[in-house]
Known about the structure:
By secondary structure, this protein is an alpha/beta fold. It is 41% helix and 17% strand. The chain has an eight-stranded mixed sheet, sandwiched between helices.
Amino acid sequence: MTVTSPYAAALGRVPIREGATVVLGSTTRFWDYGDPDAAATLVLVHGFRGDHHGLEPVVAQLDGIRLVSPDLPGFGASTPLTEAAHDIDGYGRWLRGFVASLELSGRVVLLGHSFGSIVVAASLATAGASGSSDRPDAVVLVNPIGQPALEGPRGIFTRLAIFYYWLASVLPERLGFALLRNRLIVRVMSVTMAKTKNRALLRWIHDQHDRYFSAFSDRTVVLDAFRASVSHDVSEYAQRIPERTLLVAAEKDDITPIAAEYRLQTLFPQAELVVIPEVGHLIHYETPVAAARAIQRFLEEPS
Length: 303
């Protein structure tokens, strides 16, 4: 049974175009929202095991901005990388190549959510010097991974996840792939991360995870991406990101506690922290309006 998105009406008013480009051997599919002639373009990088659908509730709330949202290589409709590994360095190189392929004019802002926050941060930490053509004008990180995953308030769940992905890697290919796509495990993850008490919203969140959380190309890609996600965090790269940065954090995030987000803010040369109350790691699903308001205000402020 289809579960109607609470954000469908708002998203339906946004013009959407589809495109594709080849970067490091990946045929990368992307979705281009809003006014193509807008003065500012926001390039979105989604989280681990998701695809572009995950950030659409935030997209639906933003006005006067062009937004370009690709599926990460090996996830959603994008094919895997063939000229780089699916590690943080590979994803960082891919992101720089993807942005370059768009040949954007005007103001460019990078936004990363969750694992995407690590990809964005790593890509910038190894990009050219401040002011060079391959750097954005500003950065937005939503639910940023601000400390090593094992140090989070639910480190035990990270250890269980490590065991789960290890088991999937040692089983025969068919069994390992089936384990990775197991609907019960996906549901446990969804229930664990969601904080809303709104039953209709909760049903929709679970439906989104059922639909898109297993949309990866093969076992190798998702295992490599998982290792990358638990081996790095944004704090490694923050000091090398001189651009104005907005951190949109959650009060009840189970992956990065709010105290760690406050520490993360101090590592950036110029970062602002906005904390959204009563939500966890699913800001993009549970409180996209609050996130979009913070992003819109940040983008409208003078550089």
